[in-house]
Amino acid sequence: MEYQHDVEINGEDKYQNICKHNGLCKKEKDSKDDTDSNKLSHIEKAYTTILSELGEDVDREGLRRTPLRAAKAMEFFTKGYKETIQDILNDAIFDEDHDEMVIVKDIDLFSLCEHHLVPFFGKAHIAYLPNKKVVGLSKLARIVEIYSRRLQVQERLTKQIASAISEALEPAGVAVVIEAAHMCMVMRGVQKINASTVTSVMLGTFQDNPITRKEFLDLTIRK
Amino acid sequence: MNGHCNVKVNDTVEEFHSNNSFSDLLIDSKKSVVHRKHETSRKKDEDQSRLPALEAAYTSILRELGEDTDRQGLLRTPQRAAKAMQFLTKGYHETIEDILNNAIFDEDHDEMVIVKNIDVFSLCEHHLVPFFGKVHIGYIPNKKVVGLSKLARIVEIFSRRLQVQERLTKQIAVGISEALQPKGVAVVIEASHMCMVMRGVQKMNSRTVTSTMLGIYLEDPKTREEFLTLSRSA
């Protein structure tokens, strides 16, 4: 299949291509005309429009520099688009004769819902079964950062993290669970304050072997 | 807004000379923070007509951030984000008179009334990022009690705006004070600011606490302490 062949050549995560442009739009990457500061000033103008359409007085003291601050904040919240796995892994993969479960849990996670542009946040729990290659532990958290600092859907975020680890380390199995609160449900809409959404992806041994999966879930989720 | 403030200042000066009462002066000088001119500038029936401009602004933001606005997940995002933003700032077209709905009752009660753990959600006016937490409100009625849910509704009016936590606290306190003329009002807000948690210094567990004490809560430390103790207990 030609599509899969392309994916393998580019080394891109195939789940990134389910929604084709969840990475940076290619034409944006190629364009040399729009510098970063140009983009920032366009976003600033958009925020100035938003503030005045919401009925606010854009000249009052508290709001004078808000368009700039909001634009910079938005750029920070979507900085994951510019980062790649290769950059952050930084060759921190080590040969280690270890094949027992490694879990990094309670990784704080902050992302933006792509439907309402409102934050969702929670915790990610990641486990993998090394196949003679272990990774620096903070790199698991950095992988979470790359994919969470984008406009996301929690299901896709979970899958992207799992498959990124899977491709980088080729372990015997990867498990990722994310539990998050969505402000689009809490602050507006149905307004359910205590609702939280849990998504999980199990690859390799975690998918095939229920006992391995249970061990992971017992060690992370069940208190 | 300058004209508006001048009127309030003149009223304040006159009140001071006639009453010569310190706590009255404090309440009057805080009144100007409740009724800021821009905050009732949006009419509810205008919302629909303002949506296209908001949608265009959000489409522009998405494109400048490098996203593909034609992909399935983002197709209707500008509309959703615009409506969400209007909802999160709906406090601009609400006033206390509307929501109080005459739910003020004559009751021979002059002991403290506390409504605590009111969930509050607002938007930081500096970064347009949410902050949220809990509000605890206490008041000592002066023969007039208010429907309890109205205290929560007053919180909603002022929190569904672009806010600064200090101002929000004061507006809630002064709003209640003007509506009920009680012997005292106390408002405490404890909130977590996403602008500090999700970006910037990135301190996950930080909380900001602000309080406004009016009337007898300001003058009498024992009353204040009783309120703080009762509102803090689990």
Automatic annotation (TrEMBL), chain A:
Reaction equation(s) it catalyzes: GTP + H2O = 7,8-dihydroneopterin 3'-triphosphate + formate + H(+)
Keywords for this protein: GTP-binding, Hydrolase, Nucleotide-binding, Tetrahydrobiopterin biosynthesis
GO molecular function terms noted in the UniProt entry: GTP binding; GTP cyclohydrolase I activity; zinc ion binding
UniProt record, GO biological process: tetrahydrobiopterin biosynthetic process; tetrahydrofolate biosynthetic process
Pfam families according to UniProt: GTP_cyclohydroI
Domain of life, per lineage: Eukaryota
EC top class, as a word: hydrolase
GTP cyclohydrolase I domain mapped to chain residues: 43-219
Xref: Gene3D superfamilies: 1.10.286.10, 3.30.1130.10
Record keyword Kinase present: no
This protein's pathway: Cofactor biosynthesis; 7,8-dihydroneopterin triphosphate biosynthesis; 7,8-dihydroneopterin triphosphate from GTP: step 1/1
UniProt EC number: 3.5.4.16
Keyword Nucleotide-binding: yes
GO CC annotation: cytoplasm
SUPFAM superfamilies tied to this protein: Tetrahydrobiopterin biosynthesis enzymes-like
PROSITE patterns xrefs: GTP_CYCLOHYDROL_1_1, GTP_CYCLOHYDROL_1_2
The family this protein is said to belong to: Belongs to the GTP cyclohydrolase I family.
PANTHER family for the chain: GTP CYCLOHYDROLASE 1, GTP CYCLOHYDROLASE I
HAMAP family to which the protein is assigned, alphabetical: FolE
Protein known as: GTP cyclohydrolase 1
Native organism: Champsocephalus gunnari
From TrEMBL, chain B:
UniProt keyword annotation of Glycoprotein present: no
Catalytic activities: GTP + H2O = 7,8-dihydroneopterin 3'-triphosphate + formate + H(+)
GO biological process terms on file: tetrahydrobiopterin biosynthetic process; tetrahydrofolate biosynthetic process
HAMAP family, per the entry: FolE
Protein name from the UniProt record: GTP cyclohydrolase 1
Top EC category: hydrolase
Molecular-function annotations in GO: GTP binding; GTP cyclohydrolase I activity; zinc ion binding
Family that this chain belongs to: Belongs to the GTP cyclohydrolase I family.
Residue ranges constituting the GTP cyclohydrolase I domain according to the UniProt record: 55-230
Pathway: Cofactor biosynthesis; 7,8-dihydroneopterin triphosphate biosynthesis; 7,8-dihydroneopterin triphosphate from GTP: step 1/1
GO cellular component: cytoplasm
Entry's EC annotation: 3.5.4.16
Keywords tagged on the record: GTP-binding, Hydrolase, Nucleotide-binding, Tetrahydrobiopterin biosynthesis
UniProt cross-references to InterPro entries, sorted A to Z: GTP-CH-I_C/QueF (IPR043133), GTP-CH-I_N (IPR043134), GTP_CycHdrlase_I (IPR001474), GTP_CycHdrlase_I_CS (IPR018234), GTP_CycHdrlase_I_dom (IPR020602)
Organism this protein belongs to: Champsocephalus gunnari
